[in-house]
Write a structure and sequence with these properties.
The complex is a heterodimer of chains A (about 500) and B (about 500). Chain A has about 500 residues and is an alpha/beta fold. Chain A contains 15 helices and eleven strands. Chain B has 16 helices and 16 strands. Classes of the chains: A alpha/beta (about 500), B alpha+beta (about 500).
């Protein structure tokens, strides 16, 4: 067993191009790693036949000298992405048995670039959640454990399956989506890199919608370089998504130079909030020092509307979701409740949705319906939209002073135990997103990069927030942190 | 510049209740299907009459992850319609979602334009009789998706859904409450249809559902409407009810009348009108409440986050304006001015673009009034009798023009012309050639007529005496001469010669 699944994308790419390994061997190693990973519950629909066929095709392309960026790289795909002929159910029972007749633009771009699909990855139902405990497939387990403690931890959410799979070397990279932090928080909880690009960079076509104005897909990888390679393939204009932007996609990998001299890094004072642990505070300070040491200029900045971001997010996202998820009505596909004699369409809707949607999704749909309803629209939805504008302006003002990027912690804490939050106030769970949601509201790119372990041996991440369309600059900064922290820790295999 | 015809405003319809007189106030929302090959946000066909669920794109069926992309041609059609109604074109507009659950609404919302419609205020002149017209102000025109069709009567236990219509582009043309009688409402609908057909932005086919109207009706006491117009304040008007989904001019009129009487009865009884949505039942000739207050929809409108605001350029609007066809009002005014037609005739001839074009071809270089008479009386009469339309007319404009030329030249009489029209209708052919070959030409040769007159006089000595005593009897000789010449003698010439020969 060569354990090729432990390679990074860039290592595997270089070795395949050199003829040193084949995609088929690499893919086989991933498939057997997946086979032994049931305890993690990351992969929920495996596609070994597709994977091997794609791997063979990739090997042929490499042999023929036609090896695009992702050629032969085995990936996991979040269940939120529609993949043709393969179950795609957003972690929800309401989409039981749904197999789309179409392929999402992003996954198609990856296949066109030669990537290999190992299967679909678990996630919080409809991407709503921060702990991956709301999936119809069951909880995802973090491959990381606290030192000397075998309590199961959350991988974060909603892209928990993606995070767990990448961290456990089941695949070389995975797609994620991020509406309020769903790429960055799980990346931080599992010691991997995750980037949410600028809103409009990646097509949303074929990605099951949660909150359309916030949703963006991005890569989750073992290294910053891998994120650059994979992101480039995922980006690009798509006429099928009206919010996709027609902008050239730069060579992100080539922008990783480690030269950040003269870059101005903002440290937002408001983020140093109560309840932030000493460890997180220290991690942030260390990260700041590393960037300074590498030649960046550090400035304090203010994002005065920071504290309103979470409330605004938890109005806007459920509002859009309540409308986006109205289509799951039992009429055309997915789950449909069985009716008693004499029952009609209203009973069909109510029971289908009560049976098909989990508790957390139902709660958000009700919140969303409420904030859009007559008499409450202005007080909630419109006010939240105004807050959103102010948050966006906070960032614009900061960038207008010459700041290139902003450094913050990715999460307020390390991964917590599965079930720990079950009885907690839902707002406690929402606090997981406190550092990440502002970015979605402002439509900015942000990357979470592992920066160290806490005292219990769990990974912690730092977040870098960039200017619109400056993902390349952001990845270069993240690479400096990756380099300087020398983060190479891996979870000890227990599964 | 053409002279604007001077028109006067019609009196509103007054309904006398048991206690007092009431006036009607009506506003309409006309839903017109945009003439386009593809739907508003998908590439699926809009063709009518296709197999159920065959014109359905993934986004129309609201499959997970599918996104709407605006069809630029539908936007162009809406702009064209706005320009045709002299309306303000909004360079910035935006789409909103109207949320409700129904099986023929797959997304669970209709994409519409509540807050920022593509077209703003305009106006439409509704002709009611020669010299009488109502100016109806248009409040807005917005683009929206049509829903599908639910079929409840095919199975005792199931309903069926056809998504072919789902996502087809509609324009909703919203009037101000400027319509004052059932007849005006029907005429408004007809005028909208005429304009849309001229513009080519909607086929106007009400049977196929291409045009439907929601009608808002309230009643007020005489004088209140004028107060409303002066202050632009709805407090002067009564509470309105909306009658949904009317697709026949006749039913629109009946529904307005019966709804107004219902409201008057309630008010005179000391009751209050509840603002609500009602349906008209033509079988019982009554309106019924569609849903109770508890069931009233809260549509939770909000900006559609899948679409960016629709921003268009003034230059593009100008380009569309430059290609606008001559519209019914202008065409009618031109026909009155250029061809000397009556307002009535001009109105008939411009009712649709094809008839107007037909007439213009017939009238080209000929007597306009004569051409109008022939097109309206002979051709339209015959088409109607034979259940044909102008597009299927067996007589072409050139043929009818040929007949009119022969009349004007004096080659044939009006009576012969009708026979000739009959021949052309049934057998086709060039009218001039038919007249020549079949010897239908009028005899204007006085020698030949004189000979015929002499023969008739010689054969009827008794009549000659009577005619000399009573010159009114001259008609007998004219008739005999016409008979003898097979009707081809020029009647005017015959008259003159008979009178001269008889010394009258």
């Amino acid at each position: 067993m060569a354990d090729l699944n432990k390679l990074t994308i860039s290592e595997a790419r270089d070795r395949m191009r050199a003829g040193d390994i084949t995609s088929v061997d690499l893919t086989r190693d991933c498939l057997s790693a997946i086979e032994g990973s049931g305890a993690l519950n990351a992969f929920v629909h495996n596609t070994p036949d597709i994977a091997l066929a794609q791997a063979e095709a990739a090997d042929a392309r490499i042999k023929a000298g036609d090896a695009p960026a992702m050629c032969g790289i085995p990936l996991g795909i979040k269940d939120l992405f529609c993949t043709k002929g393969v179950a795609s159910q957003a972690g929800s029972a309401i989409l039981e048995g749904f197999k789309p007749e179409y392929e999402s633009t992003i996954s198609q771009s990856l296949w066109d670039s030669g990537a290999v699909m190992l299967g679909k990855l678990n996630m919080d139902e409809f991407a709503m959640g921060s702990s991956n405990e709301t999936s119809t497939y069951g909880d995802v387990v973090n491959p990381w454990r606290r030192t000397g403690d075998d309590a199961a931890l959350t991988p974060g959410g909603s892209s928990g399956g993606s995070a767990s799979a990448v961290a456990a070397d089941l695949c070389l990279g995975a797609t994620g989506t991020d509406t309020g932090g769903s790429i960055r928080q799980p990346a931080a909880f599992t010691g991997i890199t995750g980037i949410k690009p600028t809103y409009g960079r990646c097509s949303r076509w074929g990605v099951i919608g949660f909150a359309s104005s916030l949703d963006q897909a991005g890569p989750m990888t073992k290294s910053v370089r891998d994120a650059a390679i994979m992101l480039e393939v995922m980006c690009g204009h798509d006429e099928k998504d009206s919010t996709s932007v027609d902008l050239a996609v730069p060579d992100f990998e080539a922008m990783i130079t480690n030269d950040i001299r003269g870059q101005k890094i903002g440290i937002p004072v408001e983020y140093r909030m109560d309840g932030i642990s000493d460890e997180i505070a220290k991690l942030w300070d260390d990260g700041t020092a590393m960037l300074k040491d590498a030649g960046a200029e550090i400035v304090e900045i203010s994002l005065p509307h920071f504290k309103y971001a979470l409330p605004a997010y938890y109005v806007i996202a459920p509002a859009e979701a309540s409308s986006n998820l109205a289509r799951y009505d039992g009429v055309r596909y997915g789950h449909r409740a069985k009716l008693e004699a004499g029952e009609g369409i209203d009973e069909m809707y109510m029971r289908t949705r009560a049976e098909g949607f989990g508790y957390n999704v139902q709660r958000r749909l009700m919140i969303g319906t409420y904030v859009l309803s007559a008499g409450f629209y202005d007080a909630y939805y419109n006010r939240a939209r105004r807050v959103r504008t102010l948050i966006k302006k906070d960032f614009e003002d900061a960038f207008a002073t010459g700041v290139h990027a902003i450094l913050t912690p990715a999460t307020p804490s390390a991964a917590f135990g599965l079930g720990d939050m079950t009885d907690a106030d839902p707002v406690q769970m929402f606090l997981n997103d406190v550092f990440t949601v502002t970015v979605n509201l402002a439509g900015l790119p942000a990357v979470s990069v592992p920066a160290g372990l806490d005292k219990q041996g769990l990974p912690l991440g730092l977040q870098l927030i960039g200017r619109p369309w400056e993902e390349g600059e952001l990845l270069n900064l993240a690479h400096v942190i990756e380099d300087r922290t020398g983060f190479v820790a891996k979870p000890e295999k227990w599964w | 510049m053409l002279d604007a015809p001077t028109t006067k405003t019609p009196a509103p319809k007054v309904i006398s209740g048991a206690r007092e007189d009431w006036e009607l106030v009506i506003g309409m929302e006309v839903h017109a299907q945009v003439a386009s090959n593809a739907k508003l946000f998908s590439g699926a066909s809009t063709k009518f009459g296709a197999e159920p669920n065959s014109n359905v794109a993934f986004v129309d069926a609201a499959m997970p992850g599918m996104l709407p992309v605006i069809n630029e041609f539908c936007v162009e059609q809406a702009v064209r319609t706005g320009l045709g109604m002299k309306a303000k074109i909004n360079l910035f507009s935006a789409f909103d979602r109207k949320n409700y659950f129904y099986p023929d609404l797959p997304q669970g919302y209709q994409i519409s334009q509540l807050y920022h419609p593509i077209v703003g205020e305009g106006e439409v002149t509704v002709d009611l009789a020669p010299g009488v017209a109502r100016i109806v102000r248009v409040e807005r025109i917005h683009l929206e998706q049509d829903a599908g069709k639910s079929i409840h009567d095919m199975d005792p236990n199931m309903s069926f859904v056809d998504l072919n219509r789902t996502g087809v582009a509609l324009m909703e043309i919203v009037s101000r409450p400027d319509i004052r009688s059932p007849e005006e409402a029907a005429a408004f609908m007809a005028k909208i249809r005429q304009i849309l057909r001229y513009l080519g932005t909607c086929d106007g086919n009400m049977q196929e559902g291409s045009m439907r109207a929601d009608v808002n009706i309230s009643v007020c006491r005489p004088g209140d409407y004028e107060r409303f117009r002066e202050a632009d304040d709805f407090k002067h008007l009564g509470t309105r009810c909306e009658i949904k989904n009317m697709n026949s001019m006749r039913f629109i009129q009946a529904a307005i009348d019966v709804e107004a009487r219902r409201q008057i009865a309630i008010l005179e009884d000391g009751g209050e009108i509840t603002q609500e949505t009602r349906l008209y039942d033509p079988d019982k000739n009554e309106t019924r409440s569609m849903r109770s207050k508890e069931e009233a929809h809260d549509y939770r409108y909000f900006p559609c986050p899948d679409l960016l605001p629709l921003v268009i350029e003034q230059g593009w609007v100008d380009d569309i304006a430059a290609t606008l066809p001559e519209l019914p009002d202008e065409k009618k005014a031109r026909f009155i001015n250029d061809f000397g037609l009556s307002e009535y005739d001009a109105g008939v001839l411009t009712a649709d673009k094809t008839s107007a074009a037909y007439f213009e071809q017939v009238a080209d270089g000929r007597d306009g009034k004569l051409a109008a008479n022939w097109v309206i009386n002979e051709l339209f009469g015959r088409l109607k009798k034979e259940d044909q339309t102008i597009t299927t007319s067996p007589v072409s404009p050139d043929q009818l023009g040929g007949i009119i030329t022969l009349i004007s030249k004096g080659d044939i009489s009006g009576k012969i012309a009708k026979d000739l029209f009959e021949i052309v209708w049934n057998e086709g052919g060039d009218p001039a050639e038919i007249v020549e070959v079949r010897g239908m030409k009028q005899v204007t040769d006085t020698g030949a007529i004189e000979a015929a007159v002499d023969a008739v006089i010689a054969a009827n000595p008794a009549q000659v005496e009577k005619a000399k005593a009573n010159p009114k009897l001259v008609g007998f000789f004219v008739g005999q001469v016409m008979k003898a010449t097979g009707g081809k003698a020029n009647p005017k010439a015959v008259n003159e010669i008979v009178s001269a020969k008889l010394g009258l």
